[in-house]
Amino acid sequence: MISIAMILAAGRGVRMKNLTDNLPKPLIPVLGEPIIDGIVGKLKSHGVADIVVNTCYLGEMIKADLKKHAGVRFHFSDEAVALETGGGVKKALPLLLPKGRDGFFVTNADPLWRDKTTSVFAQLEQAWRPDAMDALLALIPLDQAFGDVSDGNYFLENGRPRRQRPGEKNIPYLFTGIQILHPRLFDGAPDGAFSVRDLYDAAEKKGRLGYIVYDGDWFHIGTPEALAETERILSP
What is the pLDDT of residue 236? Predict the structure, then answer.
């Protein structure tokens, strides 16, 4: 069982406008609960005992908030300058190992999701094949994605995921930002800031990029309008 995860929480969240002037994006409340708290709760429910969180913008506020969570150990990877998704995970690898030597969960800090059957983490873990995959992405059909969503970014062809190419439209699946990664994905990766998407592309070419189609609802809280839509849909 995978018992360690990373939450990518270093971004500035500039598209949230004044909402992030004095508050890091992961602490923006949705129906009264900070986004990151909802993610931590789902990880804990799956049995994850260790969570690595990278921080940059107003990181001390994130650390202070997470102190209220019992039953999980937090490890922080501080970044003087945000290293993007790939650089952030690479810098944090010493904190993810050795527990994550056969794979670890990674999730962005700005989505929320609503499971319909089993949890997205259970669905990922059931499909994970560390001997055959370097990364396993949770994709979602566009009609199950809400909030800050324009188009998809993945096709499924011959049982494998293929990322969109320039000019392609009407792309049926969207990457949720929730995944399992193997440490070997970062072998030879550059230092500094880079997107983990570059490493997905390399794994795709090698036939080592896996996927699941998540069956729940997913909400991307990237703008104030998306926040309002998410709260409207999730309101009891």
Answer: 87
